[in-house]
Amino acid sequence: MADDRLLRELVAAALRQDDDAARELVRALYPLVAKLVRAHRPARSAEEDLCQMIFIKIMQKLSQFSGKVPLEHWVSRIAINTCINQIQAEKARPELREADLSEEQAAVVRNMAATGDELAPDQRFASRELVEHLMTVLKPAERLVIDLLYLQQRSVADIQKFVGWSTALVKVRAFRARQKMKKQMAIISARENK
After folding, report:
1. Predicted model pTM
2. CA 8 to CA 76: how far, in whole Å?
3. What would the pLDDT profile of 40-60 be if each residue is shown by its tens digit?
4. What domain count does the chain have?
5. How far apart are CA 59 and CA 61, in angstroms?
6. N or C: which terminus of the chain carries fewer CB neighbours within 10 A?
7. Does residue 130 sit in the same domain as residue 179?
8. 67 with 116, same domain?
9. Is the distance from CB of 109 to CB of 98 less than 8 angstroms?
C-alpha cells in the first residue's frame, strides 16, 4: 500500500478537482477495498459493484477526511460499514435468484413458466428441492407450517395439536407463506423469461 503522505497529497489534489489524482487515489486504495469487500461481502452483491459503491462514497465524503487517522483506516471504515449496510439490506429483503438454483431447479422453473402441465417424474425431486430453496425466504414459523402441511402432508388439525396454534393461525400462516413463495417464484420466472 502507498505511504500515507502520498495518499494525503492525492486526497488534497483530488479535492482540488484533479481527475488524475482521483484516479491514482482509487488505484492506490483498490487493493485494500477489494480485500475488505471479499472478507465482508454480502451473498447477493457482486464484488465489483460493491467496490464501486464504496469508491463513490469515498469520493463524496473525501472533504470530510480530517487527517487525524491514516487514510487507510478511514477508507476501511467506509468499506466495512458499506458491506454491513448491504448485508442488513439483504436480510430485510430476502431474495432468491436463478443463480442460486441448481440446473435441475432452474429447469423446473422454466417448465412451470412455459406450461401448466404436470411435472415429469424426473423433475419432481428438483421441484421438491426448489420448494425447500424457496422456503429460505420465509420466517421460521412460516417454514414450519409449510413443511408440516405440504411436505409432511399433515392436516391442519394435526398441526394445531402439534404446535398449539389455533386453526385460523395455521391457515393464515400457511396462506402468507404461500404468497411469499409465489412472489419469489414469479420473480425467478420473470428473470428466466427475459
Report:
1. 0.48
2. 15
3. 766 556 778 888 999 999 999
4. 2
5. 5
6. C
7. yes
8. no
9. yes
